[in-house]
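FAQ: What does a multi-protein file look like?

Like this. Sequence, then tokens, then the next protein.
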Amino acid sequence: MADPKGFLKTSREEWPRRPVEERVRDWDEVYVPGALLPIISKQADRCMDCGIPFCHDACPLGNLIPEWNDLVSREDWRAASDRLHATNNFPEFTGRLCPAPCEAGCVLAINQPAVTIKNVEVAIADRAWEEGFAPPRPPDRLTGRTVAVIGSGPTGLAAAQQLTRAGHTVVVFERADRIGGLLRYGIPAFKMEKRHLDRRLEQMLAEGTKFRTSTAVGRDIGAAELRARYDAVVIATGATAWRELDVPGRELHGVHQAMEYLPLADRVCEGDLEVSPLSAAGKHVVIVGGGDTGADCLGTAVREGAASVTQLDIYPLPGAERDEDAEPWPTYPKIYRLSAAHEEARDLGTAPAADADVRLFAASTLRFTGDPDGQVRSLHLVEVDAQRRQVPGTGRTLPADLVLLALGFSGPDRADGLIDQLGLTLDGRGLIARDADFATGVPGVYAAGDAARGQSLIVWAIAEGRAVAAAVDHHLTGATRLPAPIGPYDRPMTA
């Protein structure tokens, strides 16, 4: 603890965003380049000597937050990088993309704004790359054992890196044409530029991890063949089966799933396309779903030049402060948050009929209507109460040339045949069943991440990857020194 009175003397200050008018004209990250380092040491000073750091429990990775806060305060960046990477393979991802349950669990957050843990984390990660503190770490020797990892999202990449560093020969199979899963084709570049992902992949290649793209296991290569060729298989395919909206008019042209829309925008940024076939340019856009994926669609539609954008959230407008009875500290509260995308759309006035920023809260979609050519033109909605019962007399109609469904995901996609070919058992939620060691009922086959846990946060995905790697290493060698931060049945803190 560098400054025992830091939390008393210094107010919370976050990484400033670029002006809205500037950032919506490009796909670069929304933050002011170079503006974080001048403020971050003082912000790290705000970390208290709290005795029991609940931020550890709030983060499934078990990040050593007070330790690296203290080191940043003293500007010992190398040691801070060592402590950060001790528990997290990809802190530059989590520092940009995680909603920070650690900050909700910060002891200072009981009666003050929390320490800017995310900002400190990303500052350490970026400094580590700049100063060469994150070199490749190839194993000293190989074990002769082979592992196939199916899926290259954060779970698959974390598992692959840990197992490679343990000396196993690891091959990651990805059905898309580039590695990264949703980090590549799902997260917009304005939230995380792909150079951060590419840099980590170069590190993993130098360590010895092998990648096979455009290979759908179950279709391009049989699951039984893969199982026969490798000593262990880790399924980390994610929960990519999207939830549907069963209302009249769903079949109209112009009604699409968010994950049909977002990857095309990412491909424009990658240089694969000049213009997205689903571009929002000049269109009235309605996004159904109030979560992070919906916000990603919002920021993308704004940058594409939509005529208007409105986001529907079935939940009521949350309050600005934590409800201490329903969601007491240190649980993660549902409060009103203004993401960069919401700030942009609010300031640009994209949805003049919305309740707050560009969102209509407590709004339920009734149906879509279209023109004689079958193109969607309107979305009909109604207000609902806390039990999602329709409120009489509250029906409204919004113009809609493009409707994006951002309703979350229900489980792993079975279209490739992987699950059926392996004969895997699914649980009552439609997720891959596994035991306390992450093992499925098929010998040598393990499941981790959203495919087995269900839709979750990036920190949980990386924690799952690290934990399944330890389980596989133990299976292959009879012992392991790899950390296992969570078990398969662990869940986020709740009241």
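And here is the next protein:
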Amino acid sequence: MAVPARHTSKQKKRSRRGHIKLSVPAMHYDATTGEYRLSHRVSPKGYYKGRQVVNSNDNGNN
């Protein structure tokens, strides 16, 4: 069984784990609907780039 020869210091351990973190989603204000939405996604009201691409009364069940 492999056993480390030396104790890993806090600095070495933390620098190795420095890139492991949560990222904040890119939220933008949509002036058409007045809501915030994710980038490159359709707004909850069905708008994308200022025009309606999904009907608001469409519930997704076909």
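Q: Is there any per-entry metadata?
A: Some entries carry free-text notes. For the entry above: Residues 24-53 form one domain.
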